[in-house]
Amino acid sequence: MNSTGYGIYIEINVSDLDEFEKRTCFGPGGGFEIETDKNEEPGPYFHPLLATLITGAARLNLAIAERLCFDAGLDWAFLRHRQHGDRQAG
Question: Model pTM?
Fold first, then answer.
């Protein structure tokens, strides 16, 4: 389910180039030149804005659930499952 809800919208396919090529990388401070032997092509459904909104909505749902649990007097509980061969304490 995760791949259809998020993964397909952020898919980038990397392939090897036969030789190094100059490319321009862009960021908040502008662009800068690099040399690389990799090529990146977006997947068929690439949509980074949609992918970040899906992730943000999932985190918001978790935060809401956590708050509802705390308001109901519940708390976190963790259980470590003992694996075969683990030493027993004591």
Answer: 0.56
